Amino acid sequence: MKQLMGVINLDHELDLLNELTYFRCGAAVPFAGRYRLIDFVMSNMMHAGVLDIALFVRRKYRSLLDHLGEGRPWDLDRKRGGLFILPPDWNDPSDVSSGEMQHIHNNQDFFERGSAQYVIYTGSQHLSNVDFCAAYDYHLKQEADVTLIYTKVDRLRPEHQYCTRLDVDESGRVTDIHLEQDHANIYMEMFIMEKKLFLHLAKQCIAHGESHFFRDAIQKNRGRLRIAGYEYNGYHAVINSLESYYRNSLELLQPEKYNSLFREQPVHTKIKYEVPAKYSESADVSNSLVANGCQIGGTVHNSILFRGVQVKEGARIYNSIIMQKCVIEGDAVLENVILDKDVTISKGRKLQGDVKKPFVVAKDTAI
After folding, report:
1. What is the number of other CB atoms lying within 10 angstroms of the CB of residue 5?
2. Which residues of 176-197 are buried (b: 16+ CB within 10 A; e: fewer)?
């Protein structure tokens, strides 16, 4: 959509997934057998026809750069426009901005050169199938200064504790923004705003020494801005803790959950050419996601295996997430475990966590 440019702000997203974010930012964490968390919002923007997407990054983004490349899986490898990965620029001695305002200030040319009139601004921790075209049409219909995208959850979970909540009246206007714990309207850290107003508010925030756009430009000005709330109804998961990552991952083994995330529209990711998974006669696999390139000779139940995992004969895996190129030797037992990439579990080892607190092994580890 030529009217929308995308901004994915990773600057304020804390790396709270413990061992999984030792060597990467949260947006680059593998998910669902072959994806990264960043893929879902990137795909939503692609399906909306967004031609220019900028990423605000500050730390531990090497893995993210390797995954995104030039943006080809999302049709962003273009001569004009496309994908822009924008680390902070520290070379302006007159710059007084801080936090995410520093990204906006130092990359103002990205906004000025783009032909789009509106900005869709989002993070990466809320997984969804949001239709940004429908949200944009709603924004225009409401004649709003800014439209906040939210969802009403049926069940409040621990990961919702730090999520912002919205009060929305019958006309679709946001009447309050708060952190009341028993409130079900979860703000998904996504908003749409006219580019001109966006840059004006950012300039005001910088002049007053403020650093967080949503808090300082939108929430503090809710009495002066016309703020609309667009309700999203569809798959939604917040990945802001190790526990939420583990539970939401394994819930995809339920067909209705998996279909609600992947069947409505495809999710695009970096292409890797792997041979099909190979199962030996001794393999026993049930209710699991097994990616290409795996070699299975043991038992795998209720688990997710990423590309290239080897499960030797006699090994047993239950309720676990095994990432790329891990090797599980014979007679090893894993239950309620998360293994990051390139982990080797030697013969006969037993690792066991809890369904509420999985045992996690960092990448490139041998046990």
Report:
1. 26
2. ebeeeeebebbbbbbbbbbbee
Domain ranges (residues) in the chain: 4-262, 278-361
CB atoms within 10 A of CB 114: 18
Structure-token pair, residue 351: 């690792």
In tens, the pLDDT along 62-114 reads: 999 999 999 999 999 988 889 999 876 666 777 788 888 999 988 888 999 88
Would you state the structure tokens that stand for residue 168, as one six-digit string?
């929305």
Furthest C-alpha separation in the chain: 68
Instruction: Give, in words, the CATH class of 278-361.
Output: mainly beta
What pTM was computed for the model? 0.95
**Nearest of 343, 1, 336, 40 to residue 190 by alpha carbon:** 40
| Bridging pattern class, strands 316-318 and 304-305 | unpaired
**DSSP per residue over 105-135, as a string?**
HHTHHHHHH---SEEEEE-SSEEE---HHHH
What class has domain 4-262? alpha beta
The rounded Cα 260 to chain-centroid distance in angstroms is 16
285 bridge partner residues: 300
C-alpha 238/C-alpha 228 separation (Å) is: 22
